[in-house]
Amino acid sequence: MSKSHVPGAVISVVKDGKLFFAKGYGYANVEKKIPVVADKTLFRLASISKLFTATAAMQLYERGKLDLNADVNQYLTHFQLENPYPEAVTPARMMTHTDGTTQRLIGIAAPTAAQMKPLVDYLPDHMPPIVWRPGKLYSYSNHSIVLLGYLVEKISGIPFIEYIDKYIFQPLSMRRSTFLQPPPPPLANDLAVGYQYQNGNFKPVPYLYLNIAPAAAMSATATDMAHFMIAHLQLGRYQNERILEAETARLMHETHFTQHPKLPGTGYGFRERLENNIRAIGHLGNLRGYSSSLTLIPEQNIGIFVATNSFTGVYGKILNQFFDHYFPVTKKPALVKPLTLTDAQLERFAGTYRDLEYPHHTLAKISAPFKHININNSPFA
Predict the structure, then answer these.
(1) What is the Cα Rg of the chain in Å?
(2) Within this chain, do residues 200 and 349 fall inside the same structural domain, yes or no?
(3) Per-residue DSSP letters for 202-264?
(4) What's the gap between Cα 317 and its chain centre?
(5) Are 261 and 361 within one domain?
(6) What is the per-residue burial (b if ≥16 Cβ within 10 Å, else e) of 364-376?
(7) Beta strands per DSSP E along 288-356
(8) Does 1 fall in a domain?
(9) Where are the beta strands (DSSP E) in the chain?
(10) Is position 59 within any domain?
(11) One domain, residues 106 and 248
(12) Burial 2-21 (b: 16+ CB within 10 A, else e)
């Protein structure tokens, strides 16, 4: 934490259906010297919120109210997606980020709570266009999950935030978790202040009011997140409550898309990680002033949640060391014979490669030229 300039952090670990470890480190509020407490301090979870939205969608699926492979337009009445391709945008593709949309940055936040827009008003004007053939490419998009959250709201007839509280938070006894912005009293008093490190000091960052609530607005404690991890590791069950049927949870955790069989892929909401020959699923979260990570290791019945109140996180180093310590690779990998390619063959791959995930339709698209890498056929490429 010191080397990474992180003022406060928390971790919770679950194993075999129980909380194994939970502890806070550093300060939730540097100025007031308020310490981080695992079962009290809330952190903004950013994109880990997407796992809750996907879980809600899977609840509607198992109740027969949401067809994962149906054209999403059949559920939309206030607006329609303009899809130039024959392949449909479906809830399944939205949960695997293969729906063909990409990032949108302008308009995702509001200056004040009063200026936040309801999903039904926000989405028609801010849904990014479909620029890739659905089902073809993985392109991470906040708005695909925002639209999924709107489907939860529209199909259930309950506002999204109320739905999550009633059907996920309450059954899991997540009493210190919320999608409200800012958190309601008394939770607001225990929200860790987000910081950025500048000129040797921690500077508080302004609270960001997000119009994309289903994708990024959740706040929670580490012990509440332990309940959610236990429920998914136990295939939908937490103590005597069940938020998903076992078959539905398995479906959610499966790999549904990968760009190549040897690369990690994505399930419904959950992203895959392959570490030391072990498969893990989870999600990361990054927001101005906060970072977080949720990792499930189904084979070992282990879950790990880490959060900090700084954009610079520590979860990467923690997870790497965790896997190397508890699940080290004991067998050396087989040697792979290097490919021998001619200059002509190498020339096929020479050029400029650009990130898929940039805004394609607003002023922010001017950032695209700065997200590329040049590849040539020199031995140092």
Answers:
(1) 21
(2) no
(3) EEEPPPPEES-HHHH--EE-HHHHHHHHHHHHTTTEETTEESS-HHHHHHHHS--B-SSTTS-
(4) 19
(5) no
(6) eeeeeeeeeeeee
(7) 290-297, 302-308, 351-354
(8) no
(9) 8-15, 18-29, 34-35, 43-44, 109-110, 177-178, 195-198, 201-204, 209-210, 219-220, 237-238, 241-242, 271-275, 278-287, 290-297, 302-308, 351-354, 372-375
(10) yes
(11) yes
(12) eeebbbbbbbbbbbeeebee
Residue 336 within a domain: no
Mean pLDDT of 308-333: 90
Do residues 253 and 354 both lie within one domain? no
Q: Position 308: which residue type?
A: T
261 preceded by a cis bond (ω within 30 of 0): no
- Token pair 């040539």 in the structure block, residue: 376
Chain segment 343-368, per-residue pLDDT in tens: 999 999 898 887 777 666 766 666 66
Contact call for residues 19 and 39 (beta carbons, < 8 A): no
The pLDDT tens digits of the residues spanning 282-314 come to 999 999 999 999 999 999 999 999 999 998 889
Domain extent at residue 143: 8-326
pLDDT tens readout for residues 76-120: 999 999 999 999 999 999 999 999 998 888 889 999 999 999 999
CB distance 26 to 238 below 8 Å: no
> For position 34, which CATH number holds?
3.40.710.10
Phi-psi region of 301 (alpha: psi -120 to 50; beta: other; left: phi over 0): left
The verdict on 319 and 347 lying in the same domain is no
Residues 315 and 236 in one domain: yes
What is residue 113's predicted lDDT score, i.e. its pLDDT?
A: 94
DSSP 8-state class, residue 165: I
Domain count, the chain: 2
The DSSP 8-state label assigned to residue 155 in this structure reads H
pTM of the model: 0.92
Q: Is residue 315 part of a domain?
A: yes
Between CA 100 and CA 132 the distance in angstroms is: 4
Q: Judge whether residue 380 has pLDDT over 50.
A: no
158 and 212 within one domain: yes
| Same domain for 364 and 237 | no
Percent of the chain with pLDDT over 70: 94
